[in-house]
Amino acid sequence: MKPIFSSFHSLHSPLFHPPLPLHRRPRWPRMDSSTPHQDSGENKAKLIVIMGATGTGKSRLSIDLSSHFPHSQIINSDKMQLYKGLDITTNKIPIHERKGVPHFLLGEFDSIDADVAPSQFRSAAGLTIANIVSRGNLPFLVGGSNSFIHALLVETFDPEVDVLAGLGSVSHVLRYDCCFLWVDVAWSVLRDYLCKRVDEMLDSGMFEELAQFYDPDRESVRVGLRKAIGVPEFDGYFRKYPPWESEENGVVPEEGCDPVRREAYEEAVREIKDNTCRLAKRQIGKILRLIGAGWDLRRLDATATFGAVMRKKKSSSSDLEWRDIWEREVVEPSVKIVKRFLE
């Protein structure tokens, strides 16, 4: 069964391509504030920023809001979703769920052999925002990579200092006029949902996708797309059971099969769940650091929605309950916040 909020595929957008070479990292000046943008005060470009830990429904909210703001266009700020490939593993939003809303920087970077640096994202996303605004459209920045969000938004960015790791002070001086929407879920509920979502991703073909991606010559290289949760965890499994050696090694080992192989599979799944939860905790910690620095994030509590989602999974009830709660407690308040911001 496909995850409620995240079993995503990629878009290679026909409308915009990053102006930077995708096969190598360019050189960047130490203090990068040169990407074109509006000047200051009321002249700053308006930007809607949807933030939150992994699995909290950011992409769903962006699509729901687009029906209320028809000129909105979405820029991805999830670092693993920047890369082309591993669509299920990286939870890219499927094309049929985008409802025709243009998406940018989603599956756009070809290289998996080098990391996209925060400075590179700052440049590519900054030019994308300028392009969207120049056509009279409203840009939405959506994703959970807070280091990329910080790099893009601050007026003065130093690529040598990771301020979100506590190595310096976080600036509250931003180069865009931002409306921040923070989708939050109580940890006990989010943890259970994230573990269930991993199972659903596996049901949707994540294991088979990773089996095709596995490369024994590059399994020790942890850059680019190879950092995606799921890749290192299953590399150990595929090292023992290479998918090209037999057909059964490329499919999920079912209950009752070789118990050693099944245990190796289950251990990889446990590691994926643990690492996904650790990622979510780190993301929440960085969001709290931004709030502490004076960033005006408007919190939207989606706990009741996800509680209803989990009840639905246990009882096989209809989608009506969680959809009603989501609309009432997340979408409607978000619409009001954005309308006030734009007016």
UniProtKB/TrEMBL annotation:
It comes from the Eukaryota. SUPFAM superfamilies: P-loop containing nucleoside triphosphate hydrolases. The gene is LOC18609229. The keyword Transcription regulation does not apply. The keyword ATP-binding applies. One of its GO terms (molecular function) is ATP/ADP dimethylallyltransferase activity. Belongs to the IPP transferase family. It is an enzyme of class 2 (transferase). Keywords: ATP-binding, Cytokinin biosynthesis, Nucleotide-binding, Transferase. Its EC number is 2.5.1.112. It catalyses: dimethylallyl diphosphate + ATP = N(6)-(dimethylallyl)adenosine 5'-triphosphate + diphosphate; dimethylallyl diphosphate + ADP = N(6)-(dimethylallyl)adenosine 5'-diphosphate + diphosphate. One of its GO terms (biological process) is cytokinin biosynthetic process. This is adenylate dimethylallyltransferase (ADP/ATP-dependent).
